[in-house]
Each structure stands twice: as structure tokens, then as C-alpha cells.
Amino acid sequence: MKAGHGYRLIVTRGGLTPAPLADTARVDHVEVVEVNSGEVVLFWDRPPREASKLSRALREDLTQLEEDEFIRRWSTVDH
Q1: Would the pTM of this model clear 0.85, i.e. be above it?
Q2: Which one of 20, 22, 60, 72 is CB 3.0 to 4.6 Å from 48, fit for a cystine?
């Protein structure tokens, strides 16, 4: 089953400003949540631009990779 069916991506911005214009001191939160349990399985705190790039890459992989492959790939990315 594709990862997008089993996991949900949640991005919480630390402010209202779009990432390219945001203060670099702002911290955005990126979480991958398991749909069935509601548990957070992966998370990152990143500056706005990095969080934006990370969330785009995660969305792409959620549509292309299988669940186990997705977790294997992203669990090695530093928090």
C-alpha cells in the first residue's frame, strides 16, 4: 500500500508569514502521523525554508513509495 494511505503529513508553521519571507529564527514543525493510530512516527523542527523543502519531498514520497520503504527512507533523516 502506498505510504499516503497509511500516513498523513502535518506542517505547523511558527507564524503567518510565507516561508520565503519568514524570519530565519522562526521554527516550523513537520510531522508524519500514522492514520490508524494517530501516533506521530516522524517529526522535524526546521527553519521555514528548510521545512518547506522537507514537506515537498515528503509529499512526493508519500505518493510514490510503499509504507515500509517510506519509513525506512525518512527515519534516517536527522531531526
Answers
A1: yes
A2: 22
